[in-house]
Amino acid sequence: MQILSNISGYTKRYHQAVSVTHSIGGKWANCRGELKIRRPESRHNDRSTERLGRLSEVATAIFLALVIAILTPYAGESKAEDRIVVPVTEIAPGVFVHQGKQETFTPENQGDVSNAGFVVGTEAVAVIDTGGSRLVGEALLQAIRQRTSLPVRYVINTHMHPDHVFGNAAFTGETPRFAGHHKLHRALSARRDQYLSVNKSLLGTAFEGIEIILPTEAIVGKKTIDLGGRQLILEAHPTAHTDNDLTVHDVQTGTMFMGDLLFSGHIPVVDGSIKGWLALMKELATRKLERVVPGHGPALLPWPDAMAAQQRYLETIAGEIRQFIADGKTLADAAKTVGLTEKDAWLLFDDFNARNVSASFAELEWE
Fold first, then answer.
1. For residues 197 and 323, what is the distance between their CA atoms, to the nearest angstrom?
2. Which residue in 342, 253, 248 sits closest to 295, CA to CA?
3. Which of 155, 113, 156 is closest to 131 using CA atoms?
4. pTM of the full predicted structure?
């Protein structure tokens, strides 16, 4: 297959080279015609020599143009090392997950820093989160097409954060329904300009093609969708990680996509309510599930054991903040020391812990 691909690429470059040399070929024809019509006589040797010189220059130009065009990589093809691939794992029959990197946005990771997945029914496909760039979304769509030709009927976003929604633009050509929490539309609209301006600098060239795609279907409470012999329960939750968290439960396999209601490895991020999050975790722990997919971390985890580390972290910072408030200490004091006992347990601790403390302090001081 690689050989055929190379031949195809060189064929394209050859035809491109031929078109590039058309104007030069016109000069060749003029010179050739002039030489045929006017056979040089001895007394015109100087003019003949000049014409032959011009002919030689044109022929050389054509030859060089062909060589350069063929040897230069075809402009319409991305280099192999620049193409992003998102490997997916089938964690249950018909349920596929891509595990993103445990990093923040950089040009090098191209926004591939969160988990995404899809579920295949007998009639259609549902995508759950699309990654942190159009490039990631396109690669996810390619992974889907390697496994099925069924239409993508739904693109479901578990919440508003860019690393989960920036890949949406790659799916507009599939004309799916974009589904999310009923508060997602407002949240994305409010933060649109901030998300685009800040992350443009973080992603560099990987930002190309990114746009905010707003949901077309708002989920209030629970809604069941059917992919053909495959039912998914979409559930909008009260404020926790954000105020627009949504889970997706595949009834057939007992798999739940948690979005960022569940972190593993990557430190949890509070952008909603720490009290609400802890309360929701207590309720979700009672659910009968075979496996869960976190927003960050391994492709699948056992339930409810997967929640233990996150619960410990959130309870730790909540307890320490309450003690700081009781002692009359300030937010600045808390941001420096709260949660430090958890530092070695989490990736990206220095990036998010102080922010978590600030957000939680503002909530808990008004209890």
1. 38
2. 248
3. 113
4. 0.79
